[in-house]
Sequence to fold (1502 residues):
Amino acid sequence: MDLRFTDEQLQFQADVRAWITSNLDRPWSEHVADARHTPDSLVEVRRQWQKKLHEAGFLGMGWPEEWGGRGATEVEQALFEAEIHRADCPQVPNFLGIGLLGPALIHHGTEDQRRRFIPPMLSCDEIWCQGFSEPSSGSDLASLRTRAEPDGEDFRITGQKVWTTFGPWANWIFVLARTDLEDRYGGISFFLVPIDQAGVEMRPIRQITGESEFGEVFFDGALARREHLVGKPGEGWRIAMTVLGYERGAATLSNPAQYDGYLHDLIAGVRAQGDLERADVREKLGRLIVENEVMRSNGLRTLANLAAGQAPGPESSIEKILWSEFAQRQSDAALELLGPQAQLAPTSRDARGGVDWAYEYLWSRAGTIYSGSSEIQRNIIAKRVLGMPTR
Amino acid sequence: MDLRFTDEQLQFQADVRAWITSNLDRPWSEHVADARHTPDSLVEVRRQWQKKLHEAGFLGMGWPEEWGGRGATEVEQALFEAEIHRADCPQVPNFLGIGLLGPALIHHGTEDQRRRFIPPMLSCDEIWCQGFSEPSSGSDLASLRTRAEPDGEDFRITGQKVWTTFGPWANWIFVLARTDLEDRYGGISFFLVPIDQAGVEMRPIRQITGESEFGEVFFDGALARREHLVGKPGEGWRIAMTVLGYERGAATLSNPAQYDGYLHDLIAGVRAQGDLERADVREKLGRLIVENEVMRSNGLRTLANLAAGQAPGPESSIEKILWSEFAQRQSDAALELLGPQAQLAPTSRDARGGVDWAYEYLWSRAGTIYSGSSEIQRNIIAKRVLGMPTR
Amino acid sequence: MQFDLDDDRELLRSSTRDLLEAEAPLAQTRSLMEDAADGYSKAFFGQLAELGYFGLLLSEEEGGAAMGAVGLAAVLTEMGRVALPGPFLESVMAAELLRRAEGEAAAGLLRRLLGGEALVVWADREGLAGAEPGPTETRLESGRIRGQKTFVPFGAQADALLVTTTGGVALVARPDAGWASTALPTLDHAQRFVRIELDGPAELLTLSDAALDEVRRLGSLGAAATLLGLMDRSLEITLAYMAEREAFGAPLASFQALQHRAADMLMKTETTRSAVFRAAWASDEGEPDAAFLVAVAKAWAGDAARRVCGEAIQMHGGVGYTWEYDPHVYLKRVKTLESFHGSTRAQIEAALERAPIAAE
Amino acid sequence: MQFDLDDDRELLRSSTRDLLEAEAPLAQTRSLMEDAADGYSKAFFGQLAELGYFGLLLSEEEGGAAMGAVGLAAVLTEMGRVALPGPFLESVMAAELLRRAEGEAAAGLLRRLLGGEALVVWADREGLAGAEPGPTETRLESGRIRGQKTFVPFGAQADALLVTTTGGVALVARPDAGWASTALPTLDHAQRFVRIELDGPAELLTLSDAALDEVRRLGSLGAAATLLGLMDRSLEITLAYMAEREAFGAPLASFQALQHRAADMLMKTETTRSAVFRAAWASDEGEPDAAFLVAVAKAWAGDAARRVCGEAIQMHGGVGYTWEYDPHVYLKRVKTLESFHGSTRAQIEAALERAPIAAE
Fold:
């Protein structure tokens, strides 16, 4: 066993930390608590932050040098993400583009596609959203119905996508659509589609937080050019599933790092209100600390396996459930221990400052639903890890 | 709404309480803690206790007067059971005979069967056990395979039954067996079978508590006389299901009454060790008290509906899950709060006295399994109460 | 024995449901949450006053309907089912305080409250930080009240406040006295809490500490009944969604893992119904364990509703996270009611203190 | 980075598994639980001594295998898988105490311990009532020790005791000194705890409080590793049973509600593995957060194992409640380990106290 970071890795971590200190004017939570901000101006904050990260060479670090990469290892990516989360940085608008589309283009795209799309994606001159989920194919993604019909060399796309994060601000969308109605998996293809065209309508979806960060997209014969097909027709499912598995190392340490900050805020709040010596409060805080540290241990194990070039073990398939369900318990406990003041909107004069627990409480409801709900995750564990049969 | 007991009912309750005070020499827990007892002598304590109850007219109270009944209402039966549980009385050996077989004979038996079997069942001169479950038909009772083949007028029974409570001390067993191998429900018949015969072998099953209160029974052509068939051939399933639904009122208040005593013991123990002012301990105790009281409220609702002559509502189908899962949490909390001393065998010199929490902990594991496991109960709620479809 | 409501209260319950469905359905709750300055419909509350709802607990001699806590619980359960916004429980509590106070000021204000002419709320809490209210520091001296109250429900809209002070409850009424209020916007957009600065004339009411405790307990019971309604309806819409929505070619309702969780939702809901109505009945009957049973009901209802209404979102999947679908409206109200009228933790403590079996 | 064991420790682990399967399988645990007067096999422990297991943590110069906490955790996980009864962890802890003490008495006893000639256990706890140990009151005065120790593991079988007194740890050895012991039979029949009355000659050892804390922490880590083994094997036998046993015409493993619960069992087991081995590694490396990580691992393992081993019984249905099937053996051991080497609640408190983020 060896869970130690090398001196080079620790130096990299220190460099990232120093860079953030010099470059992050204001933590994200302060922006959110600033009543002068609009949704658009908050997106602009994120865009500017992405530009800074890009200029510093922190995006697509694991990609080939040609595309902005620096041959960063899984460990460096994980350390980078942990620092970013620890410091309460804004989320970059193109996180899905960089996380999913970038690898898809690098591994399955054409040289022209890479040249055309990767630079503006990294610089955030173009914002990408993802068109995978559909209203009637949530957990069962492969049942998607959006069609892509040939139109000469090109394709015409018709159908509906939902949960397109950052959709309302996006310029492009990467879409899974059917080129064959019969073949469940082999009939799906992967397209890049510009949003600013007749035949594409983007409507914001209002979330339970009141924000509209998601959108739903209606395609009515929208044009997808042949040169914007990634891979061959029918390869879409395979490409999507492959890239969903990439860069799993990057996220191994980020959630515990973020929750460290949250728990620090919670403990400080409890201390300030004079409740830190209550044994019931201490047990609740202690349990949260224990669970978060166990998640970090589990993440280190995943990362160590990846770093050692091994296939991720069972510990990696459980991470989504761990952090998403923990986040719900954590914000629930915070609302209980801090009382109703913790529910106040951060723009309220009497808000307690720090973490916006009411927002976290609501947002944590999404975590157990998106990217494979907890139910789907448990199905997967039962079937793929434990080998249990389908009835 | 009216959840008040009438003056007559309260008088009955007071009478029962006074009768118990005069007649119960020693609470059951003291017998158990007495190292001089053997399993047999403990059964003898129970048998003597049943005799006393019978002589006082407290058994089969709801049955016709001819069979020992006194036209007792559901409410009186519930009050009686609650007092019995509150006072830590021994359990009567024939509780399954009286609870299930008695009603079966009264409603579906012949006059001869009633005359022959009811009096010694009530007086505990004969002990009955139940032969429903089989090794390969646990949750799925109707898949039972024990066969009853005609032999002249009579039947020969071959097969195996398990979980026959008090089996090692029983004289008779009531058995569900197949008279038709094809008809899943309509091929099952209800027999009364003497245990002391060639062709019946009773083996004790040792439980995780170390006791052998259960048995497994092997039938190899055991004789079941035609006059000991209850109802007609093929009516067994219907009879069994009907009597399983009888006297549900009797148990509505008994679990919370018993757990009152347990919680009282737990709180006294926590107080004695100086932990009652710890806020974490108080929250745990308070939660148990809340939950037990909610169970009592739910039981009162069931009882009130029964007393008002209404069909039991959804509240009655959830009682089994409520008390059995509560009992596990309760004993878990007790072992936590009282520490390792609470694990000591009651016969140990250093045992803390009172409730034997280690035994309760183990015994509570059975509660969620027998009489329809928690999984079966949830299936039933989903299907019968919520009307959800089978896949 | 009888668990069901008697005819009078059943009629009250069913007519309340009809009224709410016609005049104040959830769709209206949703638009009020977003658009109305006051967070509730004064017109509908006028209708409630006209129909005598604020006097539900008053005796017939007092001009009330004498429906008791059981009747109130039935009404609040229905109101919870549509997540009715507005100071209904608060008005009933204010009426209960005023009815117990002597003197013409209280009597006159009670009449106006019952008639829907005046909104009166109780400003009981102080302190902002922490789960439990802070100590009362507001003082009434020489006819002038000075202090700060927090989380006053609909305090900006109120015509009069009943204010807990170190010396008892004081009456502060517009237009003689005004008060500065600052919004305290919690998770539930329909709850218009404010912080209030008091510095003006006020009049002390003759109210015993026991009376205050009785009315606080009524608030706890009312909150528990509302929580019951919230989870009752959340379960209904979830079951409907599960029956209709398909995944992998079969309705959600046919998946065993979800069935078992739906069964747990039913258990939480029905046990809460048992606990709430028993507590209400015991309160009406003056049973010695009524205070204990109310603490039990509120503690249980808070936890149960949070679970049920949280599961409702999860079972809805992606749409459960949208503003458009209804589950979030219920969960948000639950989070408010969990914290107020005695937090879950405070009610657990009260249950332990009052439990007959915990006596030494 | 590397999470897997290195070659030496992997060899240790796999040869331990082979040894246990051959010489001390669960079937033997079961018969020892019931029949053996000592609750464990002295012959097998002799074999362990011969193979150098009691010196796993000692350096090579000390005659040990220098396998560190990671090696010990790997061994104890394997021992947990067969619920090995007997004072193995206790012997390792005693060796760690003796190795830190000066003087020939300690050195001589250590040699005998390592050679399997003497069983030495630490009598650390006092007090019977309550979840946590009582204060130390045992005194050593003028070479004579007086006091009472409780829940001393295998104290009746021990050849020497290391006894915590108000003045430090004292060595009490047969035959010079004997002690009266009374059995304290807990849920786990294989754990032979006793209460001990001390009144005889003893010798003070030179051991710092820090040394005691280190060895206690080793006990916590060892208990966590054993809990991991218990749940690891419980999950395996449960999965095997679910694959084979049918209900309603299909294997239990095909029912979705049970699948989801099996997934939860896997999550508890694998997260415990992550937590235990990280804590062991941090201990070996002298990482500053090692004490924190050990508290985290023990707290988590106790809760996780109780759930997993409880579910194992439930998933087995009726047979899970029989003595004949194995799940109960695991659950009973879990209940012991939850209480000792720092109760779950005490470890949660320790984790909070030591958490870097909880610092002011």
Observations:
- The CA atoms of residues 93 and 391 of chain B lie 42 Å apart.
- The first strand of chain B starts at residue 128 and ends at 131.
